[in-house]
Amino acid sequence: MAKKNIKKSWAEPFKIKVVEPIKVTTREHREKAAKVAGYNTFLLKSEDVYIDLLTDSGTNAMSDYQWAGMMLGDEAYAGSKNFYYLWNNVKKYYGMPYFVPTHQGRAAEHMISKILIKKGDYVPGNMYFTTTRLHQELAGATFVDVIIDEAHNPNDEHPFKGNIDLKKLDKLVKKVGADKIAYVSMAGPVNMAGGQPFSMDNLEKVYEYTKKHKIKLWFDATRACENAFFIKEREKGYKDKTIPQILKEMCKYFDGLWVSAKKDLMVNIGGFLATRNKKVYEEARNMVVVYEGLHTYGGLAGRDMEAMARGIEEMVEYENIRMRIKQVEYAGEQLAKYKIPMVKPFGGHAIFLDAKRILNHLSQDELPAQTLASEIFIDSGVRGMERGIVSAGRDPETGDHRRPKLELVRLTFPRRVYTQSHIDVMVESVASVYEDRKSIKGLKFVYEPKYLRFFQGRFEKLK
Ligand SMILES: *Cc1c(COP(=O)(O)O)cnc(C)c1O
């Protein structure tokens, strides 16, 4: 029986069987490493990092069930049994009959953009994602952000900041015509907004709208299970539904979806495209041979597909997702004790520090989020990443910086990798950088690559 005054905590639904040592370095060592890396956390050597919160992409700990599956890899060039098992699980859990594996999410984005977009088309979406938008643009489309305004305000506590604003969508459709909309691109939770989910109610309305105007609706389902968890927690009528039920219900509204398996599925590499549209499937199945490999492996080994298939079974387990979301929440609550400005509500996969407010003495052109990420690394060896003006890139038409309203540092939690004590160390580091914030100077670009500049750009400290 629950005792009245005793809190009931959650704990990781696993115990640790294998460990990977990590090492603490000196501040002097980290200062040098940061300089060599051009103050870009993507260019640091992983060896120099103590707690790696760069991304949750492919950095997850697989279970013993997944590792055991790796030994069952059927490495046939064609028709591997792991492929059929994976296809079966995609049908069973996402409800999509057709499936093409890819080596990661962006390969599926590349294919779907090529298949559905004609030059001069528009793709409305609930905020952009870096690789998603780039592939849409490379295929000749213009991306238009139709997320609700609340998503651009880090202080707004709207429970579903990933929702699409139907008025914005309708305005675009009226302006350019429904036949110019290649598809509506919906993701959830929305990474760039701070890991914010969309509601089932909003999805249903978007679906009704697109159906009425004969517009296709596609799903970036990379983090779909996290979105399902938020629906269960926050939306009326979903408390008693299971994660697999909610996932299926979400997917039924879409013509198809793409997934980076490096997230929800808790593997180190993999992705796929799945659809109910046979024509799109046939085109993708043909195209994958050009870019990835035969349609029964798509750039993956048989063992990778086995780990993905088993990952699907684990990703829908309530305890698994709960632990993940609660870990992020714990980090947010601890940081809040030091009054650190952050995006609220706390997102699904990461804490987003509000660099604009933390380093409010820097202008956006002095790259506050890039600066903050590098200062946190220098302080403690905790690695996060920039999500602000550097990530947003340049407008392909004007060549100017795109200036997003949000200037954030993302601290992302790999699944099943770190414990609460690692989080405490991170929190203390952020708090000490925050205390010294006034003495921090900004950065400037010294090398800027053309595509996805945040990955390889180099910076120098301003004097
Ligand atoms: C990671 C990610 C992608 C791209 O997938 P990769 O596997 O990194 O190529 C696309 N969309 C979202 C929402 C993602 O998080």
Keyphrases for this structure?
about 475 residues; alpha/beta; Aspartate Aminotransferase, domain 1; Aspartate Aminotransferase, domain 2; 2 domains; 5-stranded mixed beta sheet; binds pyridoxal-5'-phosphate
Overall geometric form? globular
Biggest beta sheet summary: 5 strands, mixed
How many strands? Answer: 14
CATH overall fold name of the largest domain: Aspartate Aminotransferase, domain 2
Specify the CATH class of the largest domain: Alpha Beta
In short:
With 463 residues, this protein is of the alpha/beta class.
Overview of this protein structure:
There is one protein chain. The chain starts with 26 loop residues before the first helix and ends with a strand. The protein has 2 domains: 174 residues, Aspartate Aminotransferase, domain 1, CATH 3.90.1150.10; 252 residues, Type I PLP-dependent aspartate aminotransferase-like (Major domain) (Aspartate Aminotransferase, domain 2, 3-Layer(aba) Sandwich), CATH 3.40.640.10. The longest helix has 20 residues. α3 packs parallel to α11, α4 packs across α10 and α14 packs across α16. With 463 residues, it is α/β, with parallel strands linked by helices. It binds pyridoxal-5'-phosphate.
